[in-house]
Specification:
heterodimer; A: 218 residues; alpha/beta; Rossmann fold; 6-stranded mixed beta sheet; 4-stranded antiparallel beta sheet; globular; B: 506 residues; 2 domains; 11-stranded mixed beta sheet
């Protein structure tokens, strides 16, 4: 029987220090994310979605509780290694390297993974042509840039893809296409896809929707 | 990993061409100044060697006047008559054999000179009337020299009206060194031009003598005639010049000594000077001579060192060297500050790129290494370009310094050798030709011509060019500057948190 990859969150807590004192953003979250499924995390602004995503992708350090991947704590693995081997992030503002072409941006992720594959394979997978792959980032539309960001996430070959408002800047048609790509990544490539979103459409297409309200997941 | 980093660095360099050009220009300018400073320091080192070889200092063996006075005082106190005391007093001198032996310390001695001073009788020639108190055959100092107002063994007053000055090189005649004597016609004498004489313009006029004419004067001791050929006619601007002084080489002059003074060829010589190869070794040379020739001190002769010419020159050269060092330090500090600022701004400008790399799992040290690689590539380009132009800058700056120093050195050499070292001479140019210098390094046949050629050779060798070591130093200094300039931006990078960078953009 095939083993299912699991990302598990246990009693996760997170606080910020500000002028008015300590503000608890996440209050003892427990959750389990399984490979082959697309999850949508929704919630109001300030509910702690981005903080939760930062902890899931090891961009921030865990204060209380734990996050484990297949039983191994992210703390043990180390943030840098966790990002390199297990998780890739797709940002709302794409975060692509501007002076590189689409192909070169994807190549960076392939290089970090020390594999010898063509970036065109991943660009094609997200619906970009070879010609578009050769363009500098600022010569691409917002939708095309988001596809490049997703292609980079796929190319890194990580089992977990975390996306923060990936369709926030896109029109409806493009949003539809991007959602489809994420679904395929979850269902066909057996990845754990976690999307933080405000979009009802994205939430509708998710296999499971988790609502974050005042630091509590329901 | 390194290959990938190199690939990213190269992409950054050639896609961000404006930034690359600015950085390259800064490295280029810095490298030019660094190379010029390094080359000047090299030139200063060469100039110091040049000064050492040309102004190596002089060691003189001369009468120890303090010891002589002490001796006089003691004798007078013991009742010796003052007149009698001065009558029998002779200036202590060195034998030519000893003088030549000492000159064989070739590790120290570059050249040497000495004089034989003696009187002669004019025979049927007219002599120049002297306006000063000092007559023909007299030398200042109140001491007697061979044949000058000296009593012979048969009590006959021996008094020559011609002063013979035998010296082993024309260039070492004190009047030539003081620039009071110049050749009006003819040539200089050398060790090979035996029986040749350099006579004064007044003496030549009075006796209707021209270059090539022969004349005869007599040894005052044995009245033997010595035939001399006029090789040159000199003019002296000195007010108290003795127009009856005839200059010749020491061997010719020795013919006018008494049989006793000639001493089978081991005659005494005066004004013995040794010109040092290295002024720094002059004291060592003196100690060696004192140790091996204790009779010099016993004969009331002292050995003194004069390195003032070298010291004066070395002082000015060293100040140029420290000036170059100051420039080098200022340039390095300025370069570190400027490049630190540029890299800091560059790193701030590329925060998101770094955030992306960190989010992809790159270590912070990899990010620092990428920035360093980019700087090293751009820096290498700037240094390479500066290697081409810096050579010209270094040449113009370095040559300026060397020219001023060489001019000063040449003035000194004109004093020492009578002519500038780099000057061209030909018999048809109206300038008298310089004969070979007698009494050069024994066995080497060293001559004035060779010394002059040596001087020219040294000047050619001083051609300012950045050496491979200078280029190596430039690159090493440049890379050290890059490393120093990276410290502050690296600390910033190490403090970066990808979440803060990327969340900030979100």
């Amino acid at each position: 029987m095939k083993k299912t990859n699991v990302l598990k969150v246990e009693n996760l807590e997170y606080s910020y220090q500000n002028a008015s004192g300590t503000q608890k953003v996440l209050k003892g979250i427990d959750a389990e994310f399984k490979a082959g499924k697309m999850y949508a995390i929704v919630g109001e602004s300030g509910s702690g979605k981005t903080t939760f995503l930062s902890l899931l992708s090891a961009l921030d350090k865990i204060q209380e509780g734990d996050i484990t991947y297949n039983g191994k704590s992210v703390r043990e693995i180390g943030g840098s290694k966790f990002r390199l081997k297990y998780v890739n992030i797709v940002f709302q503002s794409y975060n692509l390297i501007k002076y590189m072409t689409a192909r070169e941006n994807v190549q960076v992720a392939i290089d970090f993974d020390k594999r010898k594959v063509s970036p065109d394979k991943y660009l094609k997978q997200v619906g970009l042509t070879e010609e578009e792959g050769g363009r500098l980032i600022n010569k691409l539309s917002g939708g095309q840039q988001q596809r490049v960001a997703i292609a980079r996430a796929i190319a890194s070959n990580s089992p977990i893809i975390v996306a923060d408002e990936p369709t926030g800047n896109l029109d409806e048609d493009t949003e539809e296409k991007i959602i489809e790509i994420f679904r395929e990544l979850a269902h066909k490539e057996d990845k754990i896809v976690i999307i933080v979103t405000h979009s009802k459409r994205v939430a509708e297409h998710a296999d499971k929707v988790l609502r974050l309200r005042r630091g509590v997941l329901s | 990993m390194f290959r990938n980093m190199l690939k990213r660095s190269w992409l950054s360099i050639h896609r961000k061409l404006g930034r690359t050009i600015v950085l390259t220009l800064i490295f280029f300018m810095m490298a030019n100044l660094v190379l010029a400073s390094i080359t000047i320091k090299t030139a200063v080192g060469a100039q110091m060697d040049y000064a050492k070889s040309t102004l190596g200092g002089t060691v003189t063996i001369q009468a120890d006047m303090d010891a002589i006075r002490e001796n006089q005082k003691a004798e007078m106190e013991s009742g010796t008559d003052r007149k009698e005391l001065f009558g029998k007093m002779e200036r202590p001198q060195v034998s030519v054999t000893t003088a030549n032996e000492i000159a064989t310390y070739s590790d120290y001695v570059k050249d040497y000179s000495y004089e034989v001073t003696v009187a002669a009788n004019s025979n049927d020639l007219e002599t120049v009337e002297t306006s000063s108190r000092m007559g023909a055959g007299e030398f200042p100092g109140g001491m007697n020299f061979p044949g000058m107002g000296k009593q012979s063994s048969d009590d006959t007053e021996l008094d020559g009206d011609i002063s013979i000055d035998g010296i082993n090189a024309y260039a070492y005649i004190s009047g030539v060194q003081n620039e009071t004597i110049t050749i009006k016609d003819g040539e200089y004498f050398d060790e090979d031009t035996s029986d040749a004489a350099l006579i004064s313009y007044e003496f030549a006029e009075l006796n209707d003598l021209k270059v090539g004419d022969e004349f005869t004067i007599k040894n005052i001791y044995n009245s033997e005639s010595v035939k001399l050929k006029v090789i040159g006619i000199y003019d002296s601007s000195e007010e108290r010049a003795n127009g009856n002084t005839i200059y010749m080489n020491t061997e010719t002059a020795a013919q006018f000594l008494s049989e006793d003074d000639y001493n089978d060829g081991d005659y005494d010589v005066a004004n013995v000077n040794y010109y040092m190869l290295d002024s720094g070794k002059a004291d060592e040379f003196v100690a060696l001579v004192n140790e091996n020739y204790p009779e010099l001190a016993e004969n009331k002769l002292k050995i003194s060192v004069d390195t003032s010419e070298y010291d004066a020159m070395a002082g000015s050269i060293e100040s140029v060297g420290s000036f170059a060092t100051t420039i080098l330090i200022i340039v390095i500090i300025a370069a570190v500050i400027i490049i630190t600022l540029i890299v800091t701004l560059n790193v701030r400008d590329r925060r998101y790129e770094m955030g992306v790399l960190l989010s992809l799992g790159a270590h912070k040290r990899n990010v620092v290494a990428q920035i360093a690689t980019e700087l090293i590539i751009v820096g290498t380009l700037g240094f390479a370009l500066a290697s081409l132009s810096g050579t010209f800058l270094a040449k113009s700056m370095g040559q300026g310094i060397i020219d001023s120093q060489t001019a000063s050195s040449q003035q000194q050499q004109e004093k020492n050798f009578g002519r500038p070292t780099g000057g061209s001479r030909s018999s048809g140019s109206g300038m008298p030709s310089m004969p070979a210098m007698p009494g050069g390094m024994p066995g080497e046949g060293s001559s004035m011509k060779q010394i002059m050629a040596q001087g020219r050779q040294q000047k050619v060798e001083l051609d300012i060019n950045a050496t491979p070591i200078d280029f190596l130093l430039l690159f090493v200094t440049g890379y050290v500057v890059i490393i120093l300039a990276l410290i502050l931006p690296s600390v910033n990078i190490m403090r970066y948190q990808p979440k803060e960078i990327l969340a900030g953009k979100e």
